[in-house]
Amino acid sequence: MHLNSFHLFLFLTSGIVCQYDYEGYYPFESDYGYAHSMLEPSTAVCAPECNCPITYPTAMYCDNLKLKSFPIIPSGIKYLYLRNNMIEGIDNNAFDNVTNLEWLILDHNYLENSKIKGNIFSKLKNLKKLHINYNNLTEVVGPLPSSLDDLQLTNNKISKISPSTLEGLVNLTVIHLQHNQLSEDGLSGVFKGLNSLLYLDLSFNKLSKLPSGLPPNILMLYFDNNQITNIPDEYFKKFQALQYLRLSHNKLTDSGIPGNVFNISTLIELDLSYNQLKSIPTVNEHLENYYLQVNQINKFVVSSFCKVVGVLAYSRITHLRLDANNLTRADLPQEMYNCLRMAADISLE
């Protein structure tokens, strides 16, 4: 991926790769000018209970209206927001007037799989974003159109995904599945063939093992707040571009981490905080941000960061968190400062 393309992806995902709040972080969702639109008059071509701002005439906002069913959606609407309502189902003809819909945002409703009729989403041949966060889904909805690039189903009750549900979604770039009830058995074969996938968040689920069959081009993998105890040897070797990896709040121990499993040359950020580690896992010299706070680490070995130290051989670590471990400043060897010469922040307290 070219640098300019990566910067664009970071912009689209709204800063999700920066240092984050460990109590839980969720990326800001673009609202297509919603904050300003509420001050503007609505267009004539709009459901009467909703708002279609003059400056965004193809967007229809029906948020916070206590709706129990879909309003009539006029032809020409491409961006539909129905957040914070009481909708339990979707009728088979709900989108008959708007088969060109591109964004469908249904967060904070009461949607259930059994009340979503027919192949309702597959009719939307131009759909790019589908957000059904904070609902009552027990399965991933589908079938879905191949145009989809952003799927968000967080804070539901999803425990398994059929291998065919995501099949053929060649444009899918972002998947949010955090805060569900997924185990590794419920993910078998699910992500096969998703070669455009760059971002996958499976945090706050019930994984005891890392899922198999993930596509090799992923940039960001988030597994925090699961029950993972070990990592298979060479698990990350197949990933060609992995840059951000989070495994905080799991049950990792030294015996569950093979010696070189995190020695990944593309990796920029690694989060292993809130585990049960007693030593620092070895990382590649190109790693920049390393989070190890709240473990049981009692020794600092320079070779975890630098194989050798020299004029051109040193770690690129900028931020290193070791607070809430069994280390003090006195435990840091002198040669550490030459190895970690780029470090702007090393936290021990």
UniProtKB/TrEMBL annotation:
Record field: transmembrane: none
Stated family: Belongs to the small leucine-rich proteoglycan (SLRP) family. SLRP class II subfamily.
Gene Ontology MF term list: collagen binding
Protein known as: Lumican
Major subcellular location class: secreted
Signal peptide extent: 1-18
Compartment list: Secreted, Extracellular space, Extracellular matrix
